[in-house]
Structure formats: structure tokens, C-alpha cells
Amino acid sequence: MANSQSMCTSFMKELLLGQHQFGTSTITSRTSLTAPTTDTFKAALYFASATVNAATTAYSVTGEVTNTSGSGYTAGGVTVTNANAPAQTVSPTATAGVAYWTPSASFSWTALTVTTAFDAVLIYNSTQSNKAVSVHTFGSQTITAGSFTLTMPTNDTTNALLRLSTT
Amino acid sequence: MIVTTTKGDMDEAQLEKREGSVDNEIEMTTWVEYWLEGELVHRSAHVTLKQPVNFGGETAAFA
Fold first, then answer.
1. Which of A16, A131, A158, B20 matches a 20 to 30 Å C-alpha distance to B10?
2. Closest Cα of chain A to B15: distance in Å?
3. Residues of A in contact with B33 (CB under 8 A)
């Protein structure tokens, strides 16, 4: 065996678990700093005309979907079901690794009417000042007196919604 | 089957049904529309995300 230079995969998972802090930061209390509780994440939809991307730092109502009629969509979006603990996998040769996480249920809206095209969902941390986590895009959609469901990919090494990888 | 529409609940038999799907590297999407006399009265969609966001390299090699 020889040493191989790589970020440790366990470290990447620990980032998702908030176990590392390399500088000062201000966070909302999680009851205990040694055993922090899981934050609440939310998912908000954005019109195709909006601008949410890698530069987005926090949830904003600017460009967020609004109801054309009815009340099927609530500002801020829906709460993400989070029963999947961040996981990690190391390659058999221990030269590569990935840590990953995927929400454990679909995001769903019912009795919805939004006739202006939307094509993105922002996942954000509503416990920690609505800090942005990720933006996911899809083909533009409109909904008329119907439902919109956003199903998550398989929570595994290759397909998980969020991946932190070496290589 | 009863369909929720902009005109209220209606029997599916009264409506024209249109369906479609998209399957590419980003998503797998299905949608259904119901039309009444040329007017869209219901549209639902189901999007399954396929493309993860990745921090670091592309898909790690696990050979």
C-alpha cells in the first residue's frame, strides 16, 4: 500500500453534519454545540424569469413562484423531508470518495395554479437564516388546477441530489 | 374519474385528455392536461430530478 493524496471522504460527510468549523461564524443555536439538532430545510420554486444560481446566498421572494389563482403555493415553499443522514462511500482502491445526501421524499404542491413558467427549485436552510444550499433546474412548467411533484433521485453515490466528491 | 379543473370537478369523460413526457439526462417528466372546448382546464406535472449538483470533481471513479 502507498499513501494517496485525497480529501478524506469522512471529512466531506462531516461538513454536511456541521462537525467542522474553520473560522468564526454566527449561527442560530441548535440547543447544544456538541450535539446539534438537525436544521430544517425548505424548497421554494422560482419562475423561469428569475435569477437563482451559484451566486444565490439565501432564499428570497424575488422571482419566487406566486399563485395565478388560489392558494396552492405558499411563499417560502415546502419543508424538505429529511430522513436520509448524509452518507459516504470510498472507492475500493481508496483513491476516491463521495459524500452525499438527498431529501427523503418528493416536494409536492396540490390545488395549484401557476400559469407563468417556472423551472427551478431552491433548497435552503430555514433554521440558519434561510441560507441557500442548492439550485436545481428542470424543463419549464405551468400548472392549472393541478398538482406539481418534484421527485428526488436515488440517494446513492452516483445519483444523490447533493454530492461532495474527490477526483 | 373526477378531475379537478378551473370549472370545478368534472368527469374525465367530458374532457379531452392530453399527456406527454420528457426523458433526458436532467429529468424525467410526465404531464397530463385536460381540455374543455379548446380551453386548458387542468394541467399537472411530475418531474423526477436526475442530475445531482456536485462539489468537487465529476462522478468519482469507483473502479
1. B20
2. 14
3. 144
Task: Assess A48–B contact: CB distance below 8 Å, yes or no.
Answer: no
CB pairs under 8 A between A and B: 122
Identify the bridge partners of residue A44 per DSSP, sorted by sequence position: A122
Q: Mutate which of A151, A157, A158 to disrupt the B interface (most B C-beta within 10 Å)?
A: A151
pLDDT digits (tens, 9 = 90+) for A84-133: 988 999 988 888 899 899 999 999 999 999 999 999 999 999 998 899 99
pLDDT, average across residues B38-59: 86
For residues A114 and A49, give the distance between their C-alpha atoms in angstroms, rounded to a whole number: 14
Tell me the CA end-to-end span of chain B in Å, nearest whole number: 50
Classify B14 as helix, strand or coil: helix
A41 vs A131: CA distance, rounded Å: 9
Prediction pTM value: 0.89
Report the alpha-carbon distance of residue B34 to residue B6 in Å, rounded.
Answer: 10
Minimum distance, in Å, between the CA of residue A142 and any CA atom of chain B: 7
The three three-digit cell numbers of residue A128, written as one number: 440558519
The residues facing A121 across adjacent strands are A45, A136
The b/e string for B50-61 (b: 16+ C-beta within 10 A; e otherwise) is bebbbebeebbe
